[in-house]
Amino acid sequence: MATGAAPTVVITGATSGIGAATAHRFASDGARVVVVARDPARAEAVRASLPGTHPPPVIADLSVLSQVRTAAGAIRDLGLSVDVLINNAGAVFMRREVTSEGHERTLALNVLAPFTLTRLLEPALRSAPHPRVVFVSSAAHYGTHLRFDDLESVHYRGFSVYGRSKLALILVARAFARRHRPEELAFFAVHPGFVRSRFGLNNGGGFSLGMRFLMRIGGIAPATAARTVVFAATSPSLAGRSGDYIAKERIVQASKEASVDADGERLWKVLAAWSGLPP
């Protein structure tokens, strides 16, 4: 992160859980935080609760590609270098949903959105001294593999689709890392832990009750989870590195499937085509 002037940190999904805790951690350390979220009232409440002075929130439903582009434009219009981009927004959907643009919602929100937002913010990132991008992935990627014959998950099983989306994020992080020297722009994927948050509660019913119970008995506090995110975004020990998978504030081994760079390149081409960006 930059020294001297306050660094700028962009955080998606920053209105609760890991995102909100990460925003507070960065703001407490003197950073300028740009909150990106879907709900205007909750986004403004988080911004107002942060110590220091921060730009107005950027409001977007990131599962909709046109709104991702609008969000990126609003961030660029701030005229600031982006020192850190935290791609935190994500969700699990137990029933298959399709966005207004025709994409399966898990893929659209968890993978296509962070890919597109990162691509669109690359100029603002490269103008910072030592920028980093963090993709919030999950240990749920273990035991999964991408299905290129069904990326839109017509054959749908909610948590399996979620796990594949988190595998895709690791592959995307590695693909970005291959395209940039780490001293110019570094990329990391993280597993923050199983967190007591709003995760999964959008599904209601038995799944929501089960998640509440599991979080109560085994979940960690959002502030604890945020440590790994902040570590990936700022730790001097990661200088010169990029493309790593991080959990519990250390580099760990992702799944074998997450290391298949040919899959990452194949996925990159698909996401670039969908986002309308050059490959």
Topology (SSEs and partners):
Layout: E1 8-12, H1 17-28, E2 32-37, H2 40-49, E3 58-59, H3 65-77, E4 84-87, H4 105-126, E5 132-136, H5 158-178, E6 186-191, H6 205-218, H7 222-234, E7 244-247, E8 250-252, H8 261-275
Parallel strand pairs: 1-2, 1-4, 2-3, 4-5, 5-6, 6-7
Antiparallel strand pairs: 7-8
Helix pairs in contact: 1-7, 3-4, 4-5, 4-8, 5-8
Please give a structural write-up:
This protein is 43% helix and 13% strand. It has one domain (8-196, 222-274): 3-Layer(aba) Sandwich (Rossmann fold), CATH 3.40.50. Strand 4, helix 4 and strand 5 form a beta-alpha-beta unit. The chain has helices spanning 17-28, 40-49, 65-77, 105-126, 158-178, 205-218, 222-234, 261-275, and strands spanning 8-12, 32-37, 58-59, 84-87, 132-136, 186-191, 244-247, 250-252. It is globular and about 50 Å long. Helix 1 crosses helix 7 (222-234) and helix 3 (65-77) packs parallel to helix 4 (105-126). An 8-stranded mixed β-sheet has the order 3-2-1-4-5-6-7-8, sandwiched between helices. It is built from 8 helices and 8 strands. It has 279 residues and is α/β, with parallel strands linked by helices.
Entry keywords:
single chain; 279 residues; alpha/beta; Rossmann fold; 8-stranded mixed β-sheet; 8 helices; 8 strands
What is the strand arrangement across the widest sheet? 3-2-1-4-5-6-7-8
Count of discrete alpha- or pi-helical segments spanning 4 or more residues: 8
Provide the structure class: alpha/beta
| Beta fraction | 5-15%
Biggest sheet statistics:
8 strands, mixed
CATH class: Alpha Beta
- Report the mean per-residue pLDDT as an integer: 91
Number of discrete domains:
1
Low-confidence stretches: none
Second CATH tier, the architecture: 3-Layer(aba) Sandwich
Task: Report the CATH topology name.
Answer: Rossmann fold
Helix share bin: 40-55%
Secondary structure: number of strands: 8
Ends distance = 28 Å
